Amino acid sequence: MEQFLQQLTNGLAVGGIYALIALGYTMVYGVLRLINFAHGDLFTLGAYLGMTLLVSLGLRDGLGPVLGVAVLAVMVMGLVGLVGALLERTAYRPLRESPRLSAVVSALGASIFLQNAIMLVYGARFQVYPQDVLPRVAVTVFGASVPLMRLLIVGASVVLMGALYLFIQRTRIGTAIRAAAIDQGAARLMGIDVDRVILIVFLLGPALGGAAGLMVGLYYGQINFTMGWVYGLKAFTAAILGGIGNIPGAMVGGLLLGVIEALGAAYVSMAWKDAIAFLVLIGILIVRPTGLLGERVAEKV
Amino acid sequence: MRPAVLVYGAAAVLLATCPLYLNAYWVDVLNSVGLYGLLALSLNVILGDAGMYNMGHAAFYAVGAYTAAILNTRFGVPLLWALPAAGAAAGVFGALVARPVIHLRGDYLLIVTVGVGEIVRIALVNDVFGLTGGPNGIFGISRPEVLGYRIRKPHEFFYLIWGFTAASLFLLYRLRHSRFGRALNCLREDPVAAEGSGIDTGRYRLGAFAIGAAWAGMAGSLYAGKMTIISPESFSFWESVVIFMIVILGGSGRLAGVLLAAFLIVGLPEVFRGFASARMLVFGLVMMVMMVVRTQGLFPPRPRTFGLEAGEEGGER
User: Fold this and answer.
1) Residue B301 in contact with residue B249, Cβ under 8 Å?
2) Mutant choice from B101, B111, B199, B237 vs A, greatest count of A C-beta within 10 A
3) Sign of the four-CA dihedral A234, A238, A240, A244
4) A113 at the B interface (CB within 8 A)?
5) The whole model's pTM is what?
6) Cβ <8 Å between A281 and B248
């Protein structure tokens, strides 16, 4: 029971991180039908920017650990969001009317570019996060001792997801995003500035991804410039699992994938941990090609 | 003679005489270009001709390379004898993998193939059936022999690899102009119409997948013979991405364009080795610019006429 709870909370923490990244994939896909392969590297960028700011600004000393990290997170999200918007303008907007695969290759190019830019600035080796940022204490949950940081990460990702959900459901911009995702042409006819919607999507998604990057840095303590590929793939898998283009689906898919992976690693095989996610994905797609919460099937055949 | 024939002929002659005036390093680079060209031609059957997104092609490459390596090191089968077996193994594997997911739409298939590629790589790392040697891979693969002559030097490999690539170019060109190839094209352009004209879409898709996989498998066995050592690292997701990029940049479906793109993507970064660290940064940038400038690839696919308007020579010129 103790081990199960340990794995469950670990799975929820990792799943929350997957879900935050998956939201970026699913929003971009929902509006543009584009797999933004550079999204994983924006996540990495968030982790690195977080480390730099953490070391250089000393926010945690001035504001205390929790508030300091919260301010830090807002800064990282803003910066990564700006980079995401910039990327949209330069790499994706010119390809809006082109064959779909051209945009995919442009996205891959952007990913390689970002990854190597990070490597050139920070070096190829693993970078270590400051260790004492958040208090390393454990909380007892139903008799199992669970690190506090794990719970903070679960809590923070739930708060971020909730905020996004409210933003999408309750605000005018959110409504515009939903409209553009259903039918861009019709949205345009209704007076929605679709270009602006797309820009906002590219601000929001990467911002959430950047927050996830910061969380990974704080949680695992070390980061590497190539980590965006693995997290990106897992998160994209989570987005498909939940039904791509569907925002609650990405949240459910991410959390589910994290838990399945953690339990799989503990009870099935550690060595096959990374394969479990993909096996689940293939299984789901065979049984339910639109994902768990997916509804829309717009393409022919 | 049409100018295009002259250009292709001149390019072929120039390429064939390369080993006479290039040093071993550059010949070796050209060997890599040839192998990637071969891989891209094989993916082109799936992605270019049939229009199925496959970003896990390295998996079939790996199955071929490991089949050849295992046959060679454990059972003493000469490498070139193992080549057809490698092709068959990869083809069967491709068909088995594709069978349950072949009906999926574009992006879903793309991500499933990414998953398959990763699962295969993880399986190789985990030493499945105790045959793959885990993370270290398999070493001591003997070099290929042709008529009792053992091929060692890059200059000799050049003719083996490019000979095979040229033969594949010819065969795959024939394939795409065969009944099968025309049906695939139909299917890519308009699946509903294809189904309506009596094409069994599922079977044709599966066939294209199996052929592309088999070809990648044969390329894998050549790779094993060239390197004499293979490990899971050589078949990462990144490999699949490079092959994918080559096909798209070439202008999916155009065989000459695909080969030219192999030169650009594999050969050109070698020219800039001097700037080693910034090389990949520039590469990523160039891919983005290339796509923005030439969105259809270097050789945009032309509408096929199936010989109805252009007489017997119709189709690709």
Assistant:
1) no
2) B111
3) negative
4) yes
5) 0.87
6) no
